Fold:
Amino acid sequence: MAKSVKVSSKGKGKSKVEDTVPVVSGTPVVQQSSEAGSSKQLTQDTTEPVNTSLDYEKSVKILITYVEKAQANGGCFDFQEASTLRKAIQFFRFPNSKQEITEQQAESLLVNGVVRGQSRGAYTLDEASVLYEIITYVVKRRREQLTLASSA
Structure:
């Protein structure tokens, strides 16, 4: 039977659900959606695949949640880093407000924030595995956009 890892921003083991990532046989399952509609399963040793498509909006929400978790669990960021990460989070949470940074900057800040959280031990092995797949998806998406923009 499939279960879910709760993406949380409260203390260790305590969950404030904002999104969930399905887990099968102890491993989170995420699937990347391509623009053509095909998808690639991102799992390890699962017996019951769960189809959860990973899109950009969901990826950003998960990155935000885990940046917040890293700060809540261990204070991974100093004041200046926290202030900068807050700008990145606000960029995505309030897209119609006046922005101080670009989407690419906000995206990079979130990715770097999650990497910093991982380097400070803020995530479980399963969470880190899912975050790796999300970061890979976001970076690949950005590279594809930059390639399209430069060829146009």
Summary: Residues 63 and 131 are 8 Å apart (CA to CA). The beta strands are 3-7, 19-24, 27-28, 30-33, 39-42, 53-54. Residues 1-20, 22-51 have pLDDT under 50 and may be disordered. Residues 3-151 form one domain.
